[in-house]
Design a protein that fits this description.
Length: 108
């Protein structure tokens, strides 16, 4: 059984701050080939598609994952980090065997 990714309250709070739901948008988290480690994350505001997995927070903010990316993100955690080097959505992926320093590229 594939466990869906989890989204932290901090990530949903950031989506609320930028008004994603008010714009009819959701945070799309996808996996595509490329990057320095073989796969890379695509994180963007997008409109949900009919076949997306929709993860919804208490305030109506949504994170969506397409069916092709879902197995790569099984049991991952989608969070928001605000650090000295910048603020960004981050993914803690237990399926990744290696990742690069930028945090957006990984291998399985």
């Amino acid at each position: 059984m594939t466990l869906p990714p989890k989204v932290t309250e901090r990530a949903f709070a950031r989506l609320a701050e930028i008004g994603a739901a008010a714009q009819g948008k959701a945070l799309r988290v996808a996996v595509e080939g490329g990057g320095c480690s073989g796969f890379q994350y695509l994180i963007e505001l997008d409109e949900p598609a009919e076949d997306d997995l929709v993860l919804e927070g208490a305030g109506g903010e949504r994170v969506v994952v397409d069916p092709v990316s879902l197995p790569f993100l099984a049991d991952a955690t989608i969070d928001f980090a605000d650090e000295l080097i910048g603020a960004r959505f981050v993914i803690d992926n237990p399926n990744a065997t290696a990742s690069c320093g930028c945090g957006t590229s990984f291998s399985i």
